[in-house]
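yo

u said u wanted the structure for the complex thing, so here. seqs first:
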Amino acid sequence: MIERYLRQSPLAHLGLSGRGQDDGAPAQVRLAERPFSGLVNLRGPGADQTFLDAFEAAAEYALPTAAGASSVGGNTTALWLGPREWAIVDARGEPDAGPRIASRLRAALAGFPAAVTDISESRACIQISGAKARATLQKGCPLDLHPRAFRQGQCAQTRLAKASVLIHLTADESAQGGLAFDVYVARSFAEYVWFWLEDAACEYGANAKL
Amino acid sequence: MLVIPCPYCGPRCEIEFSYGGQAHIARPEDSAAISDETWADYVFLRDNTKGVFLERWVHAHGCRQWFNVARHTVTYEILASYETGAKPPKLDFVTQV
Amino acid sequence: MTQSFRLPEGGLIDRSHRLGFRFDGRDYMGYAGDTLASALLANGVHLVGRSYKYHRPRGILSAGAEEPNALVQLGEGARSEPNLRATQIDLFDGLRARSQNRWPSLNFDIGALNNGLSRFLPAGFYYKTFMWPASFWMKYEYIIRHAAGLGEAPRERDPDHYDKTFAHCDVLVVGAGPAGLAAALAAGRSGARVILAEQDSILGGSLWSGSGETIGGEPVQEWIATTRRELEGMEEVTILTRTLAYGYFDHNFVALVERVTDHLSDRPAALPRQRLWKLRAKQVVLATGAIERPLVFADNDRPGIMLADACRTYVNRFAVRPGKKAVVFTNNESGHLAALDMAAAGINIAAIVDLREDPMGSASERAEAAGLRVVPGSAVVGTGGQRRVKQVHIARLNADGTQALAAGETLDCDVLAMSGGWSPTLHLFSQSRGKVRFDADLGCFVPGASAQAERSAGACNGAFGLSDCLAQGFAAGKQAVKDAGLKIGRQAGATPRAGNDDFLPARWTWEVPSDKPSGRAGKAFVDFQNDVTANDLKLALREGYQSIEHVKRYTATGMGTDQGKTGNVNAIGIVAAAQGREIPDVGVTTFRPPYTPVTFGVFAGRDVDGLLDPNRKTPIHSWHEQAGAVFEDVGQWKRPWYFPKAGESMSQAVKREVKATRESIGIMDATTLGKIDIQGKDSAEFLNRIYTNAWSKLAVGRCRYGLMLNEAGMVIDDGVTARLDDFHYLMTTTTGNAAPVLAHLEEYLQTEWPDLDVHLTSVTEQFATATIAGPNARALLAELAEGIDLAPQALPHMSIRDGRVAGIDARIARISFTGEMSYEINVPASCGLALWQALMTAGAKYGITPYGTEAMHVLRAEKGFIIVGQETDGSVTPIDLGMDWIVSKKKDFVGKRSLTRPDMIKSDRKQLVGLLTDDPKEILAEGAQLVERVLPAPPMPMIGHVTSSYESPNLGRSIALALIKGGRARMGQKVQASLANGGTIACTVTGPVFLDPEGTRLND
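structre next:
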């Protein structure tokens, strides 16, 4: 256990509250850091049913096996990254979520040609929401982000401007709070991606929130 | 800018990928037993095909998987993509110009 | 000046919205809806530029993108933009523009002397004249560029911002004329995702040029408005006006530029000036229309000589009379249409000179019925007038139209409207690699077989009747939806109906016969922008340039900013006739993107200033900034280079940092080093295959240095790898190579050794790393560490343990790149700053000194440690580095076989050595060349170069590392190194380790 006060989130130094324009009108794009998300990288034989079963037995939900799919169980979400790779996410902001998930999975999957690595500290998570979130991301992302092509729960590793990112559509237009993406990016690229998103969203009016 | 069909993620934009040169070049098993020339061929020499070319790509900004592509080097048409280690699909290898 | 050429009513202009603008220093008025060209014409201004080579006065030729003459410099200062077509600039209040390529003024242009000297400026003149001597080219070029230049690029930085976006759609429709609108309707009604891109500010295209036409029984203007409303009501249809599709690339990737605010006098700061759309379309409908061709006759370039359809457009769309008295010269029906509309606008039609012996068709019938004078079987053979056409000379042709008989009458006029037929706009089709074919009836090239998922519709597909355009567009829209794999959900509806007159019949005369002997007539221009005449083309053929591609390059026809939009087909026709060949045998030159020029800013987009490239920063960065660090770019990382105190020079700061580290304790941010987590049962075997040395016997908790080669045997990376557990390793890489090394490892794992149970994960950013080095490092760490035995026997050099430091979970590696006792303390990245601050606070009593990359370089160079990328350059083997000790003789590894290739075992390969200058104060330049002896003059055989060079405070002198041919056999010998001042200095070759060769300091 590390005392919370010793920790700094990747974007803490920007002092994000107070950034952006707040003219009272609902912003078409909102940006927020989701600090201290638990994020665990899981490798394993995706085609081996016993491996998938072992995961399901431990996690109480199934690993997604379709490209770009995700599945949710309790407080964690499993995101498909590749045929033998997943990200297990707990975005509630508890700093020890990553190590906790990792040790549970390690125990459950011992004996499989698998690897469990806590990478929570190595990523920043930026939430972009609002009616123009798709249009803002589309400026730097070559994927087709149209509602017909990129749906709620879908995830993809791709590029955003000059950064490699993992994007996850956590809520689509029909959701209560409206459209929202989580954008995971390497910690050292977080500042670049934040500034890039602010700039790209400028014409729509952007608000930052913590 | 090409659309490259990743066998795992589906069609994606070329900027997510890196090129890996000619496919199906096997690394010699027992390198000590082969001649300098054979080794140099393996390390340095590749075909420069006009027509259908089997080549490697890696989905560097996506699933990070290597795979093979059959691409026509004149029209840039991509005829197939398949997993590393798999045999190439049957294609018409006649050079079309 | 008042708008004396403005018609009292009509046109698509807003007369309630007057706009003031300035051209060449004079103020004018126009209306909203005008282009700069239409507003100038409304004010009677035709002369707008000088030609490229001969500086002949030129006027507005066209009303669109094909304009070769009316190129203007728009705006002033930093926002100025050259070479814009006045015919495409939307007028706004306060617009400022000036003409180009004239000096000192448009009316008196000194360069026009070139026109008098024109017999000395034939095709290929520049090539012929400036071939020799080569050294003079610089002078010639300066003069030529000034005399023949186009506009000027601003020198200031561009104050505007630009945007880029990716985009996707089912159907892209390029062009919103009748065919494009019909295609968009048909596709949009199916529910498909449609983008309709139109370069003009309005929808409707050529429909606005005509008069009196109807679609489905309603006037075209109403049909356009209805159609627009319907399209705007469709959720998945995006209409982009002022948006040019300028390039068609592989796999249906189409690039578009949207002019977002160019037409506004008040531009909202939040909006970009222009936006680049990087569009991937499943299917494309090209409805790009057609461009009217000029006729090639003597002196066909005077201001006031315009394309016939442009005259129609100015009258009908802009309510502008291009002149008071017009002569029309045509080889097809279009000239008659222009004459009718001009006559209706009150322009006196002096005559319609028709190359056809017996003009027939609905327009010529109407012209005759209207009592207009038609002169059939005749040609314009010359024109008069200085800055504006004043009269035209006409002559009757012989029966087959190949010769002009004796000169006939001369007609006074102030505008000459010409039509040489129509050329489909094939640029995008051709860029998509579609093959064109020549249609002899239509007298133009039309699309042949498609190479990509596109189809052409309307005039660009050779359909010149309105009904055909609508039908083709509608069918293309439906087909595109089907080919995109979508179901037509709702009824597409019926094809809109309209009349179907086209411009045929025509008489194809590529070069109008002259009544004068060759060379005595005026110039007959084919390519206005590049000043290429019919005679230039024939001269090129006589000089042996037979291929149309060679003729293009020799004469420059079809080049420049208009890319031959008006001239190409005429040029091909003239070349074919001169060669006695058929046009299809001559072929066409390649169309290249962009269709019209695109400003550089839009390619830069938002990737400028702080967003030019990601600046990667460590979690400790803010501390470094506050400490006044000077940063160095290492890859995309910002790393502290050195930490100057007030008044310190770089040299003084580095010296202080180096000495403090050797004498007490230094601290460095090593977060940027690449870290790769390796898990799996075969991890040791994998390391054996990847590194040159053996890994099987490395104990848990111990570290080992490794050297990584590529298959060619060259060093690509080095670093320390630690064994954390039986099947768990942590590899470190150099900062700049973290990503390439991981990619290299993954490549081998996936493509060569998929059977190995090994998983690689980058954990570079999982940890923040502080390295403390120096004699007091252990004492400091002991104060802050918990749960870890730091005694030398418990934690010897090259070992690793987990514990806690300053209340933070930490992994401590005792490894050293400085030669000092040194601990790398890795903590969760979010705790990096807290760790650093704790170390700084507790280390104060030892005078703990932060050091940057420069001090690190000095420290390691004193020890002779290499840096990959500095001592190596992709051509250096471990043997060259004198690191045979780390190369296993027993096992195979990547690159091993290459090390025994004959080239690799030569004794004269460059080898790593130390170098000491005779003058200990002289610091060699890195990269300095080395020779054995200084000869009186070059060439001197180079024997190597300096790879690293520093002032060493611990040795009290300069030191250097170098790669020298057969270097290890030269120990103690002298070599000469070049100096920046042109001199040389003698140096002694030594071993590369300058300090503590036994390693007692780090093993303490």
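Chain C has 24 helices and 50 strands. The two ends of chain C are 93 Å apart (CA to CA).
cya
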